Task: inverse folding
């Protein structure tokens, strides 16, 4: 008896620290996953600077303050909108269409970092990651901000500041979270087996569709299309700014894609970092070559758009395809983006910074590419195989369905919201203000008072 | 020879240039200037204080032509440069006593 | 017996790896905390670029090289000053007033990463974090550099380069570490229950008070205040630069605040990242609205100051208040900063970049806000409750006391040092140099030789 | 018996979770090391933006697009070149001269993250780090990109775009990996006891030698050296850009040096972050003083070069020397770089951005400094002691040998490749294009169409 | 009509503008120019080498006025633009033969 | 007095300046202008579309000299400013009726 008691106590003595270590191990894992997710979120936040620089650089100096202010304020609005209700719509438990549980102010019950089965709360669809609720929210928040920012460049140089801010609020409070719910919030596309790892569709296409609606309602900038249909290029005012912005975005994408694991899974994040980088590089090369061959010279704004196109395209498939496939996906994106820029000019859609060619067109391409290049469990996710890896058309068709539904919904709602704003308060500045520049008109400021401007492109 | 100086609104430059060329004039020189006149400047804002910017961006076109061309030139420029709004600018004519083409050393009307 | 021996050996066999895992677990934790702290430190270091861009952007092109050079060199000086003696004064064991143990060259005994009770060495006040000594030092070093940099913008466009460098040395070697010791080095304010999580007072107000002293001794820039008392705005030369700088600072603050845990505590860092972000966003919105309503248009320099004001204000309370409170604290900061800019102009204090309105005024506000909004142990720290959460005036009064004592000390010492420099070597450039620009005068360089400058604001 | 079985089962019950925790612990460690290495890699990637900004800022506005495009595209090319064959040559098992195993497309066998003895695969020389293969590759890839980028600045303002791209491909596919193999790939210099922690030689000198070869084959820019031998400075067009670039590089170096541990070893990375920072700061101070004394005023381009010189110099020794030594190494670098800039001008070597003075000269100095200041196992590596710490001349001589061999190889091969390109396709733009600017000539773009340029320095 | 061209120090622009307006002149055109003269330039420094920048920023003001106004104008400008230090600048007067207001087509003195 | 205006290629500025100084002329004023002429502009490219930039950067030099100096000045400038390639520019001469040195109030030829 005595012996047995001794044994038992020995057993327990060992078991208790054992349990304790296990607990500590779990804590450490939560800590590491949180550190990784937060740092990735910081990098994604940093993309705001990238968008601000790319967009101002590719527009004229007289509209610089306006573009900068737009990019600055829109993230603030996005943060508040997503905090107030966007998060709840996107990740709250609810129907296949939208979330309804814990809707307001991240106010639902939640026992994060408990995961999977152990999770109990209002935001089950994101319980696959074991980090604190606020870390989940913060990471998703910076994504929402990105979607809003995409629109900014497309409508630049002619949109009213206040109207844009209101649209951004609606986009982040309502539109983005609804389609986001379909895909990442456990909604009907998630159930259908639609895969979008880091948001080619959820973020980029959605931003792109909203931008397209905006452009159509707004019309082109004065002087962009001549009476005879001739395209007059309106050069951006600062290629240094634009290039810096592109490099910032590239860096930010290392948070955007690898960070979307929301866990420090070593094989996964290394794989994703690499596919992300290789797609971007391939796209730069093919965009350079395409521009060189088609247009005679490698225009830097095309190289920049090329890089971003590669990054947008690999966003959905980055975790589902091989490094080799990522090179191919990027290479195709680099060609597509050059053709798209020329195409939009041809059909008289005036997109000053190429937001449509980059985010919309390549957001679609990237999403479809999952259906072509996916390899089941290449890292960790069981996506099934894409067309080129023996999976047949199944995955491709699901992807296509997702692209179409999200596009139809966002574009239609976008038209309605832009249209309503147009009727209610106007969305376009006066012709005189457009000529003089929105900086003075909207902000009473100019960006570069110490420099003499050239009238070459007024 | 005469020198015509036209101070115009910057966005009219292309039209004015075309009008001048149509008259067979082969050269001109432009510069970025700032104008002050009946057209008032605008108010700018910086860190909570307002200030008035009096000077408005204009483009100055200088063209040297033969005496006989000057009237046609004036008419042509005046026609296309006008918007009817205050601030459209001025045309001034001054005498030119000599002209030289640097490349060839040609002098006088041959040089312009 | 045999059995017992067997049992014992089994027991030990299990115990030893157990201990061993426990050791490894501890090592892993040290590693993770160090990784987190270093990355946060890199982000804080990056704020130097932010200050350089904001300050040059908000000054005239003719002083750009000077401001850039100041921001560049001052971090080098701060690093050396803090290495030589600042660290010892701030964190060395000593009196309630200053440290004295291990004063020079981080030379004291130290068994970090041992923590708390287990720690034995000269820098006990920072033994609450379990990371290597050099990681602690590096993190604190980048903070010290920030304090010095704050002064730079306030005295810009008229100060002698060398005098500024000398002041910066004194600030980081002596002034900053002394008040820092009071609060973070176990000094008398720490004992009194004064709370400043990441440095609204320790870093920002201190920089602000030193700047105010400098401005008073220096006087305003030529042309800023007319004879009739009229304020002539002197617009900054590059709003793109200024906005980029503000976004860099915002990013850096994700190191500044969440990193001040100096440990990868998941709940804490997620909470702090979020309060930091939300306060900034709220401040942007309210600064925009305030400027729009009071001044007619949303001037971008006000938006930038608004964002920074929100960040400064949340710096002290970020870990002690709820996300909801952070929104309120930021919202108030956004209003305060606009009023403060107008106020300083009115009393003829010429602060080219708004350093006082941002760092001094909102540093004070943030510190006091702890006394209003703190919620005991909302994350981990037992601060007691603030006034609005049932804690009564106690905490608020301690905070107020700290604000006043640190302010009085730094401002007085600042006046003395600036005054002494003025007498000994002069602190202001000649009128001619000020007109022509400090770039040529102090550096023989100009920032933009290829661009034609406009005399609009000479 | 029963009892014994009970005992045994108790024993096993305890052992199995024990083993399991041990496995989990290992997994966590792999995860943390991967997180650290990837984040460091992102920072190194970010250096591309730094180089782009420094180089464009220090050149004339008419060549800005070209320099930006070069820096942008060259990283894409480097990524592909290193992926296709560079990695295999550098880290594949093979001879002392180059790798041959798993040469193409990272295609060799590999069981990473298995380490050391447990490793089985084609890339044994880098099996000292326990992270996934793609993480190793990605980290090494961003280093390779850096080497290529160094050349860009030195040949700026006169080189043909296409020729430069081809050279970059050869450099990263062949030249860099071969000498890299000698040192980091287990080649003959590694065996000889040559130490270069993060690449003063592997990356910076190699870039520098290739640049020197390029400059010699290209010749100076028109107008740089007068007939009478007078040096005409050609000022860079944007000091804000250049300073931002330097701060980006500095930040990036916190990935470059501490990240080269490729493991989250807390003592090591804190130590390295600190030596890196202190060397840079010391170099800034001494470069400022040297410029002030020798040239009359502290020119900002010299401060920038000073900072970078300190960083390059500490790159090899950062993990092998004390913090005190790092200050000395940096201080010397700051003096050297100013003298080197003046020297290269004197011997009519036209290096627009100071790439030789920074990367070549201080790459050599840093490598030799290991031989002088190394302290055996100061952190973890058994380098033996340097001359000043009682180790005699041995280490210094090995370092010198490495410097000479790598230099001779890279410089000779560089001359051959540049020479071949010159013969085959020309490497220099026409005189007219050089005068008008490469932006229009090579890209059909200009960087700042909205600003009136000054002919001050055409 | 006469055209007065005054080359002045940039920081005198506001005062000169006010002096001109006080005389009842309603318009003027300014441009950024660089001057070379008795006032020597300054030495700049770049990457270890010095060089002299000869040309100094100046502002050129052009005003076209009636013949009778020219003397008063000269006196007024000279008075406020002077600092007494070398480099204060010059005033030149040239004849103007014709003037046109683009907006209305008015000619001659009515146009200015 | 005469005013000489020379429109030249920017990279010739230093040589022209030296040539002018050698003649004993003590001052001049330059400005950045853009020229249009027989020398055609170039094609630029932006985001897939081409456009022609007609105006080419030039420098305008203005020098006021005594009547007797004008011929020597023209010759000197023409000599150094020529490259023989199209676009070398023009020299124009206009009459100057009065000159004032702002600093001293000196008038006429003494002022220049
Ligand atoms: N007397 C003048 N001398 C020189 N330039 C003048 C004069 N008056 C007007 N200008 C130029 O003409 C521009 C237009 O003049 P303004 O009085 O504003 O309008 P408008 O020509 O329609 O009457 C001014 O901005 C200025 O550049
Ligand atoms: N002969 C000239 N022709 C044209 N501009 C001149 C002439 N002489 C001087 N200037 C202009 O006047 C400015 C002042 O001349 P400067 O000789 O420096 O001083 P000051 O006028 O006080 O004698 C010069 O910078 C230049 O722009
Ligand atoms: N009629 C003119 N009036 C004013 N400036 C002219 C005139 N013709 C030419 N120019 C100036 O002279 C420059 C050179 O003229 P261009 O016809 O290109 O070559 P070239 O002088 O060799 O014949 C032009 O760019 C323009 O600035």
Result:
């Amino acid at each position: 008896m005595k012996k047995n008691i001794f044994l038992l106590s020995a057993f327990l003595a060992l078991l208790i620290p054992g349990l304790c270590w296990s607990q500590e191990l779990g804590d450490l894992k939560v800590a590491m996953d949180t550190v990784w997710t937060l740092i990735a979120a910081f990098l994604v936040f940093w993309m705001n600077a990238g968008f601000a620089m790319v967009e101002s650089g590719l527009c004229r100096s007289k509209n610089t303050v306006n573009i900068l202010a737009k990019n600055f304020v829109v993230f603030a609005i996005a943060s508040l909108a997503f905090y107030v209700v966007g998060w709840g719509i996107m990740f709250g438990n609810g129907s296949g269409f939208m979330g309804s549980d814990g809707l307001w102010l991240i106010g639902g019950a939640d026992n994060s970092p408990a995961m999977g089965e152990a999770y109990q709360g209002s935001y089950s669809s994101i319980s696959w990651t074991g980090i604190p609720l606020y870390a989940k929210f913060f990471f998703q928040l910076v994504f929402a901000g990105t979607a809003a920012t995409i629109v900014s460049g497309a409508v630049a140089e002619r949109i009213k500041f206040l109207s844009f801010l209101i649209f951004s609020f609606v986009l982040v409070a309502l539109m983005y979270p609804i389609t986001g719910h379909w895909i990442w919030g456990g909604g009907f596309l998630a159930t259908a087996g639609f895969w979008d790892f880091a948001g080619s569709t959820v973020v980029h296409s959605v931003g792109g569709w909203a931008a397209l609606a905006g452009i159509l309602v707004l019309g082109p900038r004065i002087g962009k299309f001549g009476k005879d249909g001739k395209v007059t290029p309106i050069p951006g005012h600062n290629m240094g700014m634009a290039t810096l912005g592109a490099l910032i975005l590239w860096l930010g994408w290392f948070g955007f894609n690898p960070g979307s694991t929301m866990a420090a899974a070593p094989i996964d994040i290394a794989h994703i970092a690499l596919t992300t980088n290789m797609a971007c590089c391939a796209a730069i090369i093919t965009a350079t070559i395409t521009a060189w061959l088609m247009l005679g010279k490698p225009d830097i704004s095309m190289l920049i758009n090329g890089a971003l196109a590669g990054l947008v395209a690999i966003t959905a498939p980055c975790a589902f395809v091989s490094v080799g496939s990522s090179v191919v996906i990027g290479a195709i994106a680099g060609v597509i983006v050059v053709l798209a820029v020329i195409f939009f000019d041809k059909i008289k859609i005036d997109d000053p910074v190429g937001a449509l060619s980059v985010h919309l067109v390549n957001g679609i391409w990237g999403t479809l590419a999952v259906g072509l290049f996916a390899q089941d469990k290449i890292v960790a996710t069981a996506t099934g195989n894409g067309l080129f890896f023996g999976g047949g058309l199944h995955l491709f068709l699901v992807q296509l369905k997702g692209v179409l539904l999200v596009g139809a919904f966002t574009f239609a709602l976008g038209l309605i919201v832009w249209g309503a704003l147009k009727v209610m308060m106007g969305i376009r500045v006066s012709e005189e203000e457009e000529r003089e520049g929105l900086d003075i008109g909207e902000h009473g400021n100019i960006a570069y008072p110490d420099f003499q401007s050239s009238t070459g492109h007024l | 020879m005469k020198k015509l100086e036209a101070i115009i609104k910057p966005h009219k430059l292309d039209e004015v240039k075309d009008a001048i060329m149509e008259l067979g004039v082969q050269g001109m020189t432009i510069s970025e200037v700032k104008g002050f006149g009946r057209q008032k400047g605008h108010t700018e804002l910086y860190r909570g204080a307002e200030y008035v910017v009096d000077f408005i961006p204009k483009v100055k076109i200088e063209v040297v032509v033969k005496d006989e061309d000057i009237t046609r030139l004036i008419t042509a420029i005046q026609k296309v440069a006008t918007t009817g709004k205050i601030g459209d600018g001025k045309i001034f004519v001054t005498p030119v006593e000599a002209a030289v083409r640097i490349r060839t050393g040609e002098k006088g009307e041959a040089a312009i």
